[in-house]
Design goal:
The protein is built from 21 helices and 16 strands. The strands form 4 sheets. It has a 6-stranded parallel β-sheet. Helix 11 (271-278) links the parallel strand 9 and strand 10 (289-292). Helices cover 44% and strands 14% of the residues. The structure holds adenosine-5'-triphosphate (ATP). Adenosine-5'-triphosphate (ATP) binds at residues 2-4, 7, 21, 23-29, 230, 267-268, 507, 509, 550. GO terms for molecular function: 3'-5' DNA helicase activity; ATP binding; DNA binding; hydrolase activity.
Length: 586
């Protein structure tokens, strides 16, 4: 992968590095190059590079970029969210040392936790969008602003505990506690992970910093650090994400003496777009230069001129015009600042544009199941071994084997190739999607000689997988019917027009971005307005607008639709920052 002089200097820096730079300046590209360099520099066959990302989607993107641009053994890199890291490398191997975990536990995933919290919120008279924080700091405290939110959090914990479950936030806290009690955990991890790379560091929570720094601070031979981020894009403050200064990073990673780098070019957007979104930067720095600076680009703002009931039609017309002019489905993204209006928008778009394919997590039959073992098996049986997916399939097979090895020792001799052979040999005549998957899972268990009755965790995931998939399919407006063909289409390489929240597409880029719901209450979110100093709302608003607008390579369409009303019946107003931005829109 080609690197600029600035990128090259950061990637090849001898010590530890922190890169802070604008969106589109190639931070993730540099991080990927550093991971590849890290793998080359590994001294021992057991060493690995650790790459921590914010979402599973971002981890997949890094793995794909590595596979496409470098020839490295995928097993030498562990890339994923810090939650998955804590589970796989700390909780699972050391659970027996924890008084709470050693009597057995399982993980409550997003689907289950959301269901419990929403029910408790309704019982306590909280609205669906009222924030309830469930994340711990390193002292084991969970901060909630309102008494009712605190009560929800406490009752939620009691319910989980009665089910012998822990959620992702607890998995971080238990991991940290285990590391505090047993310094050899951090030492072992630092012996394995001689390189630690962190993407989107501005969204890292206190406890996540604590876990990473513990590995660094307790180690005899320090891992090398490569950290990238952009404080202006810190949109996870609501769930405890915090950006650290260089001095704070140096204090957290003791004696790390981190070198600071910044990149000044923008490889993504036209200069007009760069100038447009740079106004939303809370922390102003040097203006970045667009490498496509000669191209103009489109920026349109539909301020209050579109009724919310006409919005889907207006957006569908824009999508159609873009497609007619030759833009690829994958290069169009429809974004809302919050999750709330996305589901209904997706359903309407699908009805209005029946020929167009959509990549809409809200309607995915597998939504909320990223961490389920059976989702990986599904990916293997529903995809073909060709093109971009060839190496991804080997990676997925290895992930399955890693999962199986702990409790099913006889699978230790199995290789990814053999496992793929087993799955590829599955055949069924059924056309019903979930039935096909069930038959395949049973076939695989049989072939691998695994009895679900003896593996309660896999059994629970098996049942949850089908419960959720069936409920998603029933609620998704016929986008993914319960057929083998429909489920296969979900995992095809090119998946279609993306409809997602700005949190869901962080770090991504699209030729055309269509944003809607740019209204006070969504940007910023009510929880950053109600009972908050004005500065909190303004910070959150500028960061979200910055992230949204900087996803666009060439065209940006912004909607602040009218007609939406709050629960109290008052009309939503256009985001104050957009209202005040006097810009010559097209
Ligand atoms: N040196 C380079 N030469 C050509 N293209 C580049 C270079 N560096 C980055 N790019 C391209 O620019 C785009 C943006 O890069 P990347 O996603 O790494 O930016 P980023 O700084 O991580 O953005 P964000 O902050 O939004 O996550 C990508 O398409 C990437 O391939």
């Amino acid at each position: 992968m080609k690197l600029s002089v600035e990128q090259h200097a950061a990637v090849n820096c001898n010590g530890n590095a922190y890169v802070t730079a604008c969106p589109g300046s190639g931070k993730t590209r540099a991080l990927t190059a550093r991971i590849a360099k890290g793998v080359k520099d590994l001294k021992h066959k057991n060493n690995k590079v650790l790459a921590v990302t914010f979402t599973n989607r971002a981890a997949d993107e890094i793995k794909t970029r590595l596979e496409e641009n470098y020839t490295i053994e995928s097993g030498r890199v562990w890339a994923g969210t810090i939650h998955s890291f804590a589970l796989e490398w700390i909780i699972k191997p050391y659970a027996s040392y924890s008084a709470t975990l050693n009597s057995g536990y399982s993980i409550a995933d997003e689907f289950e936790t959301r269901r419990i919290i929403n029910k408790l919120k309704a019982d306590k008279g909280l609205r669906i969008f009222d924030d309830v924080n469930t994340s711990f700091n390193r002292q084991g405290m969970v901060e909630n602003r309102s008494v009712r939110a605190k009560e929800v959090e406490q009752e939620y914990r009691q319910i989980l505990s009665s089910r012998k479950k822990i959620d992702f936030d607890q998995s971080l806290y238990f991991a940290f506690q285990l590391m505090e009690a047993l310094p050899e955990i951090a030492q072992t991890l630092s012996n394995i992970f001689t390189h630690i790379c962190v993407d989107e560091v501005q969204d890292t929570q206190d406890l996540q910093y604590a876990i990473l720094s513990k590995i660094f601070n307790e180690s005899h031979k320090k891992p090398s650090l490569f950290i990238v981020g952009d404080e202006n894009q810190a949109i996870y403050g609501g769930i405890g994400g915090k950006s650290l200064s260089l001095a704070e990073l140096n204090a957290e990673f003791m004696g790390s003496n981190i070198n600071l780098f910044t990149f000044s070019d923008n490889y993504r957007s036209t200069q007009r777009l760069v100038d447009y979104f740079s106004v939303f930067r809370g922390i102003q720095g040097g203006l970045s230069k667009a490498t496509h600076r000669n191209e103009h680009g489109t920026i349109s703002f539909f301020n209050q001129s579109v009724d919310k009931d006409r919005l889907a039609e207006a957006i569908s017309e824009l999508i159609q015009t873009e497609l007619n002019s030759g833009t690829n489905e994958n290069d169009i993204c429809v974004i809302a600042p919050q999750w709330a209006p996305i589901r209904s928008m997706t359903k309407k778009l699908i009805t209005l544009l029946p020929q167009v394919k959509f990549d809409a997590p809200a309607l995915s039959p597998f939504h909320g199941q990223q961490d389920n073992f059976w989702l990986i098996v599904s990916k293997l049986v529903l995809t073909e071994s060709s093109g971009r997916l060839l190496s991804a399939r080997v990676r997925w097979a290895n992930e399955l084997l890693n999962n199986l090895m702990e409790s099913h020792h006889h699978t230790r001799d199995l290789t990814a190739k053999k496992l793929l052979k087993v799955i590829n040999s599955f055949h069924s005549n059924t056309v019903v999607g979930t039935e096909y998957l069930k038959e395949c899972f049973e076939f695989m268990l049989d072939e691998l000689d695994i009895d679900l009755a003896h593996d309660l965790l896999l059994k629970e995931q098996f049942d949850l997988f089908f419960e959720k998939a069936t409920s998603n399919i029933e609620n998704n407006n016929g986008q993914y019917e319960d057929t083998v063909v429909a489920l296969k289409s979900f995992f095809k390489e090119s998946t279609g027009v993306v409809v997602n929240s700005c949190h869901g597409v962080k770090g991504e880029e699209y030729k055309t971005v269509i944003a809607f719901g740019l209204l006070k209450g969504f940007v910023p979110h009510w929880s950053d307005i109600i009972n908050q100093p004005a500065q909190v709302g303004q910070n959150s608003e500028s960061k979200m607008l910055y992230v949204i607008a900087s996803r666009a390579k060439e065209k940006l369409f912004l909607f602040a639709e009218y007609g939406r009303r709050t629960q109290g019946g008052n009309p939503y107003e256009t985001s104050a920052m957009l209202s005040a931005y006097n810009y010559p829109y097209d």
